[in-house]
Write a structure and sequence with these properties.
This is RNase adaptor protein RapZ. InterPro entries: P-loop_NTPase, RapZ-like, RapZ-like_N, RapZ_C. It comes from Ferroacidibacillus organovorans. GO terms for molecular function: ATP binding; GTP binding. It holds the Pfam family RapZ-like_N. By secondary structure, the chain is an alpha/beta fold. The chain has 2 domains: 159 residues, Rossmann fold (3-Layer(aba) Sandwich); 114 residues, no CATH class. Helix content is 40%, strand content 17%. The protein contains 10 helices and 9 strands. Strand 2, helix 2 and strand 3 form a beta-alpha-beta unit. It is globular and about 60 Å long.
Protein backbone atom coordinates (compact mmCIF):
# COMPACT_ATOMS: atom_id res chain seq x y z
CA UNK A 1 0.00 0.00 0.00
CA UNK A 2 1.34 3.38 -1.06
CA UNK A 3 0.01 6.44 0.77
CA UNK A 4 0.33 9.54 -1.42
CA UNK A 5 0.24 12.86 0.39
CA UNK A 6 1.92 16.25 0.36
CA UNK A 7 1.35 19.82 -0.69
CA UNK A 8 -1.68 20.82 -2.72
CA UNK A 9 -0.50 21.59 -6.23
CA UNK A 10 2.64 19.44 -5.96
CA UNK A 11 1.48 16.83 -8.48
CA UNK A 12 -0.59 14.25 -6.60
CA UNK A 13 -3.12 13.98 -9.44
CA UNK A 14 -0.38 13.27 -11.96
CA UNK A 15 1.16 10.77 -9.53
CA UNK A 16 -2.13 8.87 -9.32
CA UNK A 17 -2.44 8.80 -13.10
CA UNK A 18 1.14 7.54 -13.44
CA UNK A 19 0.64 4.82 -10.83
CA UNK A 20 -2.58 3.68 -12.47
CA UNK A 21 -0.55 3.18 -15.64
CA UNK A 22 1.79 0.98 -13.59
CA UNK A 23 -1.08 -1.24 -12.48
CA UNK A 24 -1.84 0.28 -9.09
CA UNK A 25 -5.41 0.31 -7.81
CA UNK A 26 -5.80 4.00 -6.93
CA UNK A 27 -8.24 5.91 -4.72
CA UNK A 28 -8.13 9.70 -4.50
CA UNK A 29 -8.98 11.70 -1.35
CA UNK A 30 -9.68 8.73 0.88
CA UNK A 31 -10.40 9.75 4.51
CA UNK A 32 -7.59 8.21 6.59
CA UNK A 33 -10.10 6.65 9.00
CA UNK A 34 -11.18 4.37 6.14
CA UNK A 35 -7.69 3.09 5.28
CA UNK A 36 -7.94 0.09 7.60
CA UNK A 37 -11.45 -0.84 6.41
CA UNK A 38 -10.37 -0.42 2.82
CA UNK A 39 -7.42 -2.75 3.33
CA UNK A 40 -9.75 -5.37 4.87
CA UNK A 41 -12.03 -5.08 1.85
CA UNK A 42 -9.11 -5.78 -0.47
CA UNK A 43 -7.83 -8.69 1.60
CA UNK A 44 -11.22 -10.41 1.44
CA UNK A 45 -11.84 -9.59 -2.20
CA UNK A 46 -12.00 -12.36 -4.76
CA UNK A 47 -9.79 -10.29 -7.03
CA UNK A 48 -6.12 -10.26 -6.10
CA UNK A 49 -5.10 -6.62 -5.64
CA UNK A 50 -1.44 -6.37 -4.69
CA UNK A 51 -0.53 -2.77 -5.50
CA UNK A 52 -2.68 -0.03 -3.99
CA UNK A 53 -2.16 3.75 -3.97
CA UNK A 54 -4.28 5.99 -1.74
CA UNK A 55 -4.25 9.78 -1.80
CA UNK A 56 -4.79 11.25 1.66
CA UNK A 57 -4.31 14.97 2.13
CA UNK A 58 -5.74 18.05 3.79
CA UNK A 59 -8.74 18.08 1.50
CA UNK A 60 -10.13 15.59 4.02
CA UNK A 61 -10.32 18.34 6.61
CA UNK A 62 -10.61 17.08 10.17
CA UNK A 63 -10.54 13.46 8.95
CA UNK A 64 -6.87 13.89 8.00
CA UNK A 65 -5.94 14.02 11.69
CA UNK A 66 -6.66 10.29 11.92
CA UNK A 67 -3.89 9.37 9.48
CA UNK A 68 -1.35 8.31 12.10
CA UNK A 69 -3.91 6.18 13.96
CA UNK A 70 -4.72 4.41 10.71
CA UNK A 71 -1.04 3.82 9.94
CA UNK A 72 -0.58 2.34 13.41
CA UNK A 73 -3.45 -0.07 12.70
CA UNK A 74 -1.78 -1.14 9.46
CA UNK A 75 1.43 -1.86 11.34
CA UNK A 76 -0.42 -3.85 14.00
CA UNK A 77 -1.99 -6.03 11.29
CA UNK A 78 1.34 -6.37 9.45
CA UNK A 79 0.12 -4.60 6.33
CA UNK A 80 3.10 -3.11 4.50
CA UNK A 81 2.87 0.50 3.41
CA UNK A 82 5.04 3.38 2.27
CA UNK A 83 4.40 7.12 2.26
CA UNK A 84 5.13 9.11 -0.89
CA UNK A 85 5.29 12.83 -0.09
CA UNK A 86 5.14 15.37 -2.91
CA UNK A 87 6.18 18.97 -2.40
CA UNK A 88 7.20 22.07 -4.31
CA UNK A 89 8.53 25.51 -3.42
CA UNK A 90 6.13 28.36 -2.66
CA UNK A 91 6.74 30.19 -5.93
CA UNK A 92 5.92 27.07 -7.97
CA UNK A 93 2.76 26.33 -5.99
CA UNK A 94 1.52 29.90 -6.38
CA UNK A 95 2.17 29.79 -10.11
CA UNK A 96 0.33 26.49 -10.48
CA UNK A 97 -2.67 27.71 -8.53
CA UNK A 98 -2.80 30.92 -10.53
CA UNK A 99 -2.77 28.88 -13.74
CA UNK A 100 -5.49 26.49 -12.54
CA UNK A 101 -7.65 29.32 -11.08
CA UNK A 102 -8.59 27.06 -8.19
CA UNK A 103 -8.67 27.93 -4.50
CA UNK A 104 -6.19 26.47 -2.10
CA UNK A 105 -8.04 24.25 0.44
CA UNK A 106 -6.66 26.26 3.36
CA UNK A 107 -6.73 29.77 1.93
CA UNK A 108 -10.54 30.22 2.01
CA UNK A 109 -10.96 33.94 1.29
CA UNK A 110 -7.46 34.79 2.48
CA UNK A 111 -4.13 35.00 0.66
CA UNK A 112 -2.91 31.99 -1.27
CA UNK A 113 0.55 32.14 0.33
CA UNK A 114 -1.00 32.00 3.80
CA UNK A 115 -2.80 28.78 2.90
CA UNK A 116 0.41 27.29 1.51
CA UNK A 117 2.36 28.18 4.65
CA UNK A 118 -0.32 26.74 6.90
CA UNK A 119 -0.48 23.52 4.88
CA UNK A 120 3.31 23.11 5.00
CA UNK A 121 3.25 23.46 8.78
CA UNK A 122 0.36 21.01 9.21
CA UNK A 123 2.12 18.41 7.03
CA UNK A 124 5.49 18.73 8.77
CA UNK A 125 5.13 15.55 10.82
CA UNK A 126 3.82 13.57 7.87
CA UNK A 127 6.81 14.67 5.81
CA UNK A 128 9.17 13.48 8.54
CA UNK A 129 7.65 10.00 8.37
CA UNK A 130 7.66 9.78 4.56
CA UNK A 131 9.66 7.02 2.90
CA UNK A 132 10.00 8.87 -0.40
CA UNK A 133 10.02 12.67 -0.82
CA UNK A 134 9.84 14.23 -4.28
CA UNK A 135 10.19 17.94 -4.95
CA UNK A 136 8.37 18.62 -8.22
CA UNK A 137 9.25 22.33 -8.52
CA UNK A 138 11.46 21.90 -11.57
CA UNK A 139 10.04 18.69 -12.96
CA UNK A 140 8.01 18.63 -16.13
CA UNK A 141 5.01 16.24 -16.00
CA UNK A 142 6.83 13.66 -18.12
CA UNK A 143 9.89 13.81 -15.86
CA UNK A 144 7.74 13.21 -12.77
CA UNK A 145 6.07 10.28 -14.49
CA UNK A 146 9.47 8.84 -15.42
CA UNK A 147 10.67 9.12 -11.82
CA UNK A 148 7.57 7.35 -10.52
CA UNK A 149 7.89 4.67 -13.18
CA UNK A 150 11.50 3.97 -12.22
CA UNK A 151 10.66 3.83 -8.54
CA UNK A 152 7.39 1.91 -8.58
CA UNK A 153 7.49 0.07 -11.87
CA UNK A 154 5.55 -3.18 -12.20
CA UNK A 155 7.51 -6.37 -11.72
CA UNK A 156 8.04 -6.08 -7.99
CA UNK A 157 5.89 -5.23 -5.04
CA UNK A 158 8.44 -2.94 -3.45
CA UNK A 159 9.80 0.37 -4.72
CA UNK A 160 13.06 0.04 -6.64
CA UNK A 161 16.11 1.77 -5.22
CA UNK A 162 16.77 4.44 -7.79
CA UNK A 163 19.35 7.09 -8.52
CA UNK A 164 18.18 10.49 -9.71
CA UNK A 165 20.88 12.67 -11.23
CA UNK A 166 20.28 16.41 -11.61
CA UNK A 167 22.62 18.71 -13.51
CA UNK A 168 22.28 22.36 -12.51
CA UNK A 169 23.90 25.76 -12.56
CA UNK A 170 25.09 27.26 -9.29
CA UNK A 171 24.00 30.69 -10.55
CA UNK A 172 20.40 29.43 -10.39
CA UNK A 173 20.67 27.88 -6.93
CA UNK A 174 21.18 24.42 -5.49
CA UNK A 175 18.55 21.68 -6.02
CA UNK A 176 16.99 21.65 -2.55
CA UNK A 177 16.20 17.94 -2.59
CA UNK A 178 19.72 16.72 -3.48
CA UNK A 179 21.33 14.21 -1.12
CA UNK A 180 24.79 14.62 -2.64
CA UNK A 181 26.12 17.65 -4.53
CA UNK A 182 29.28 17.71 -6.64
CA UNK A 183 30.87 20.92 -7.91
CA UNK A 184 32.58 20.46 -11.29
CA UNK A 185 33.43 24.13 -11.91
CA UNK A 186 37.14 23.24 -11.68
CA UNK A 187 36.98 21.44 -15.05
CA UNK A 188 37.87 23.22 -18.34
CA UNK A 189 34.90 25.31 -19.47
CA UNK A 190 33.56 24.94 -23.04
CA UNK A 191 31.86 28.32 -22.68
CA UNK A 192 35.16 29.94 -23.60
CA UNK A 193 35.39 27.96 -26.85
CA UNK A 194 33.30 30.00 -29.29
CA UNK A 195 32.20 27.03 -31.40
CA UNK A 196 31.03 25.09 -28.34
CA UNK A 197 29.42 27.93 -26.39
CA UNK A 198 25.88 27.66 -27.83
CA UNK A 199 25.82 23.86 -27.48
CA UNK A 200 25.23 21.70 -24.39
CA UNK A 201 27.00 18.89 -22.61
CA UNK A 202 24.77 16.44 -24.47
CA UNK A 203 26.39 17.45 -27.76
CA UNK A 204 29.13 14.92 -28.68
CA UNK A 205 31.70 17.64 -29.42
CA UNK A 206 31.13 19.36 -26.06
CA UNK A 207 31.09 16.02 -24.25
CA UNK A 208 34.33 14.89 -25.90
CA UNK A 209 35.96 18.26 -25.17
CA UNK A 210 35.23 17.99 -21.44
CA UNK A 211 36.16 14.32 -21.22
CA UNK A 212 39.37 14.85 -23.15
CA UNK A 213 41.26 16.43 -20.26
CA UNK A 214 43.41 14.42 -17.89
CA UNK A 215 41.92 16.06 -14.79
CA UNK A 216 38.43 15.06 -15.97
CA UNK A 217 39.39 11.42 -16.29
CA UNK A 218 41.14 11.47 -12.91
CA UNK A 219 38.11 13.05 -11.28
CA UNK A 220 35.72 10.59 -12.92
CA UNK A 221 37.77 7.61 -11.77
CA UNK A 222 37.83 8.74 -8.14
CA UNK A 223 34.22 9.95 -8.29
CA UNK A 224 32.89 6.63 -9.55
CA UNK A 225 34.80 4.77 -6.84
CA UNK A 226 33.06 6.88 -4.20
CA UNK A 227 29.63 6.59 -5.83
CA UNK A 228 29.97 2.81 -6.13
CA UNK A 229 30.83 2.63 -2.44
CA UNK A 230 28.07 4.97 -1.26
CA UNK A 231 25.05 3.63 -3.13
CA UNK A 232 24.96 0.19 -1.45
CA UNK A 233 25.36 1.89 1.94
CA UNK A 234 22.31 4.09 1.34
CA UNK A 235 20.35 1.11 0.04
CA UNK A 236 21.24 -1.00 3.07
CA UNK A 237 19.98 1.79 5.31
CA UNK A 238 16.56 1.50 3.72
CA UNK A 239 16.57 4.49 1.38
CA UNK A 240 14.55 3.97 -1.78
CA UNK A 241 16.17 6.82 -3.69
CA UNK A 242 19.29 8.93 -3.81
CA UNK A 243 19.40 12.29 -5.57
CA UNK A 244 22.81 13.37 -6.89
CA UNK A 245 23.29 16.98 -7.93
CA UNK A 246 26.11 17.93 -10.30
CA UNK A 247 26.71 21.64 -10.65
CA UNK A 248 28.72 23.96 -12.85
CA UNK A 249 28.33 27.69 -13.32
CA UNK A 250 25.32 27.79 -15.65
CA UNK A 251 24.22 24.17 -15.83
CA UNK A 252 24.70 23.92 -19.59
CA UNK A 253 28.04 22.27 -20.36
CA UNK A 254 30.18 20.58 -17.70
CA UNK A 255 27.49 19.44 -15.28
CA UNK A 256 25.38 18.10 -18.15
CA UNK A 257 28.26 16.09 -19.59
CA UNK A 258 29.19 14.65 -16.20
CA UNK A 259 25.56 13.74 -15.49
CA UNK A 260 25.46 11.82 -18.78
CA UNK A 261 28.76 10.14 -17.93
CA UNK A 262 27.34 9.03 -14.58
CA UNK A 263 24.24 7.68 -16.33
CA UNK A 264 26.46 5.57 -18.59
CA UNK A 265 28.29 4.23 -15.57
CA UNK A 266 25.19 3.30 -13.57
CA UNK A 267 22.43 2.36 -15.99
CA UNK A 268 23.48 -1.25 -16.49
CA UNK A 269 23.17 -1.94 -12.75
CA UNK A 270 20.79 0.69 -11.36
CA UNK A 271 17.50 2.38 -12.07
CA UNK A 272 18.78 5.83 -12.99
CA UNK A 273 17.10 8.95 -14.36
CA UNK A 274 18.78 12.18 -15.41
CA UNK A 275 17.29 15.67 -15.34
CA UNK A 276 19.12 18.65 -16.85
CA UNK A 277 17.47 21.40 -14.82
CA UNK A 278 19.09 24.50 -16.28
CA UNK A 279 20.25 23.39 -19.72
CA UNK A 280 17.83 25.71 -21.51
CA UNK A 281 18.85 28.85 -19.64
CA UNK A 282 21.59 31.39 -20.28
CA UNK A 283 24.48 28.99 -19.92
CA UNK A 284 27.92 29.40 -18.39
CA UNK A 285 29.65 32.60 -17.35
Amino acid sequence: MLIITGMSGAGKTLAVQSLEDLGFFCVDNLPPALIRKFSELLLHSANAVRRVALVCDLRGGAFFDQLFDSLTELEEHEIEYQILYLEADDETLVRRYKASRRKHPLSANGRLVDGINRERELLKEVRERAHVILNTSRLRPLELKDLLTERFRAGGDDPVFSVNVISFGFKYGLPIDADLVFDVRFLPNPYYVEALRPRTGQDPEVYDYIMGFQQTEEFVRRWFEMIDFLLPQYENEGKSQIIIGIGCTGGRHRSVALAERLREHLQARRAVTVTHRDVGKDGER
